[in-house]
Amino acid sequence: MQLFRPIEEKDLAGLMALARATGGGLTTLPADEEFLAERIQETLRAFSSRVSSPGAQVYLFVLEDLGTGEIVGTSGLAARVGGFDPWYSYEICRERFVHRPLQVEKDIAVLHLKKEHRGPSETCSLFLRTDRRHSGSGRLLSLARFQFVGAFPKRFTPTVIAEMRGYIDQNGKSPFWEAVGRHFFDHEFYQADFISGHGDKEFIAGLMPRHPLYVPLLPADVQAVLGRVHHETEAALSLLLSEGFETTNEIDIFDGGPHLRALVPEIRTIRESRTATVRDVRPGAPAGAPTHLLSNGRIGFRACLGTVLERREGVLIAEDIAAALQLAPGDALTYSPMRSNPK
Q1: Distance in angstroms (rounded) separating the CA atoms of residues 194 and 40
Q2: Max Cα–Cα distance, the chain, nearest Å
Q3: Which pLDDT tens digit goes with each residue over 7-32?
Q4: What CATH number is associated with residue 328?
Q5: Contact present, 61 and 7 (Cβ < 8 Å)
Q6: Is residue 230 annotated as a catalytic residue, yes or no?
Q7: Which residue in the list 117, 187, 198, 230 is annotated as catalytic?
């Protein structure tokens, strides 16, 4: 069984191993032990505090293989982007150019730098080891976060965004970075991404071009990958779209990856979740019951995949599920149906 839970201090080595395995480009998960140790402390503070409104809190979770004790994946939530440091994106706008005497009318796509200090909540830091990308592990790692949002809505904004990892070519280069960012930052893509991931946003304000960028002036191969995701992010993109997220007109300032957005009540996992009392715990899983995403709905959050049998007086779950989620008869269980893998 795989358990989704908040990260703990003991998980630092496992988190570092995951960060190294990303290959770079995951801004909020740089392979830097000092940064990740502080991120764990930020998470511990977020879970221990009494929060009445979203701020700069970061909630980082891990996926633990209960059989081996290994940390095989991680994902997170930022209560609000721009909580302390500003949050930047490129907004793709359409501008109309008209010259009546020559009968010329053109709609041109333009990139405008956008800066937010009190933005929406954000999903972040999703990464699963390649050897575990099966049997619903990726869906558990991604979707369990939404049950946490549903359980504690005051900790998050009414809107959640997802900043998707952008396209990287076969040579390990970001075409968007090579065409735009490199001319202003004088860094390799992964260096700039690493600095940004450490929370240093001052260099962005000082070095980013201050004027709009006209998309037709970019090379054709760069225009073709605006809003396109990294090949390892395609499954995550499909999953979020199936959950009710929609693409926006914003992209990442470094790699041109797309930004998605959803209203919290419209996220499928939250919309279809139910909460019931655990009536009984049995040695084996209920026969013939469909797989659900299950969680305990507590601040000491635990989630896993499993079966649940609904009865008028409550629900029946297996002993291993109860142990993993730290539940006993009389406790509340939150559950939502799992869909098949999105296409």
Answers
A1: 18
A2: 82
A3: 999 999 999 999 998 876 677 788 88
A4: 2.40.40.20
A5: yes
A6: yes
A7: 230
CA of residue 253 relative to chain centroid, distance = 17
Looking at every residue in the chain, the average pLDDT score rounds to 89
- Amino acid, single-letter form, for residue 62: V
Closest residue by Cα to residue 70 from 127, 134, 151, 13: 13
Residues 329/280, Cβ–Cβ less than 8 Å: yes
Task: For residue 122, list its beta bridge partners.
Answer: 78, 161
Number of domains in the chain: 2
Number of Cβ within 10 Å of residue 47's Cβ equals 17
Query: Which pTM value belongs to this model?
Result: 0.88
Tell me, yes or no, whether 248 and 134 share the same domain.
yes
Residue 208 phi, psi dihedral angles, 5° rounding:
-65, 145
On whether both 31 and 77 belong to a single domain, the answer is: yes
Structure tokens that stand for 160 in this block: 């959640």
Please give the Cα distance from 202 to 130 (Å, whole number).
35
> 314 and 294 in contact (C-beta within 8 Å)?
no
